Amino acid sequence: MTVRSITSYRDIEFEWLNDGDGIEAYLVNYFQIDESEQFTQEFQLISDDEGPLTWTAGVYFLDEDSDSFIGIPIVPLVGIFDPAAVLIEGESETTAYAVFGEATWAFREDLRLNLGLRYNYEEKEVFYVDNRFGFVNVVDDDDDWSSVTPKIGLDWFWTDDVMLYASITKGFKSGGFNLLAVQPSYDEEEVWSYEIGTKGTYLDGRLQLNASAFYYDYDDLQVGKVVQLNATIENAAAATIYGAEVEVKALFTDNFTIDWGLSLLDTEYDEFETEDKGLPGAPTVSLEGNELPRAPNVTSTLGALYNWELGGSGNIEIWGNWQYTDSQFFTPFNRSNFEQDSYHVLNASLTYRTADNRWALSVYGDNLGDEDYFTNALESGVPTPGVDPLVPQFFVGAPRTWGVRVKFNYGG
Q1: 186-412, what's its fold?
Q2: Contact call for residues 45 and 23 (beta carbons, < 8 A)
Q3: Distance from the Cα of residue 399 to its chain's centroid
Q4: pLDDT tens-digit readout, 96-105
Q5: What are the sequence ranges of the domains in the chain?
Q6: Quick check: helix, strand or coil at residue 336?
Q7: By 3-state DSSP, what share of the chain in percent is helix, strand and coil, each rounded to 5?
Q8: Range 330-361 burial, b when 16+ CB lie within 10 A, else e
Q9: Residues 22, 53: contact at Cβ < 8 Å?
Q10: What would the pLDDT profile of 289-348 be if each residue is shown by its tens digit?
């Protein structure tokens, strides 16, 4: 039996400045300063690999202290501490515990049963002051969440090179408090996931094929939206996701490899009633049947790598990659003005590596076609008559980019 200890400490500082109005004039700008300290400790007991039964058991602990300051000066001439501003300052403390165990039983030479169970508990305490144009709200609250998450799976080794598998797993994401809005704590999110698939190698290892189909059933899915400069988080009643993925890697020659991937996705809110600022006068709307944000129906990649050996002088790698992303919505309301059309991105690189693999020099180009696309969009949450029901703020994808990288491997 083996005893393993995993200890980590993180000290994070984050600063962000955002042009909130999207125009040249200094009108509405958003800045945020976050600091956090996080400590985690995990102990594991791991069985020996001898025999048909192997197992792992352990405990996990997390403690995190965070401070945040957010400012949105509306009239810059009178200063940040003038009432014509949004100021949010607060702190939070998170404590989490978990006890878990996982076992694998090879009850036949070609069949393996996987079982797991985890108990999660998390509590949060928050204190923050929300000052919007002189109207002050103080939030001093705490809450806790817990869940038991089981897992069961079966692996069947059809041959020495091909495995088929099936699994059922429950997932848990704790609730929390949202410092960007004056609102009660939001609930935990839970999901049951069902997956079947295969992993295998063929043609004497020259072809690798992985494929899977999955179904996710969410309860109390956490959804973010913006309402009157409040970035709120609320729980959708239910949502489902199902799809399939295929990954293929083929070694055509000893020097030339092609890889291809395809992902098919269908997402839907089964139940979700919420307030929509884009429809003034409507108390709530039903988003049943809407797609989840940032969930394109089809994504695909195609890559190629050619390795040119230079004898004792090293090697040269020529790499190219094509990526396709289908159309997608950026908000749960599925508005057309918050939708990204499908797009393609082409990347490539040329790399020289020394024979001892200690040095590598690369020339690369990303988005070679200089495709215009957005990676996300936010709603202002403030109706603007004559302009747009809700003003969108888009995050632009990186344009055509060229560069040179130099890498040194200390390990050789």
Answers
A1: Maltoporin; Chain A (2.40.170)
A2: no
A3: 22
A4: 999 999 999 9
A5: 186-412
A6: helix
A7: 0, 70, 30
A8: bbbbbbeebbbeebebbbbbebbbeeeeeebe
A9: no
A10: 999 999 999 999 999 999 999 988 899 999 999 999 999 999 898 988 889 999 999 999
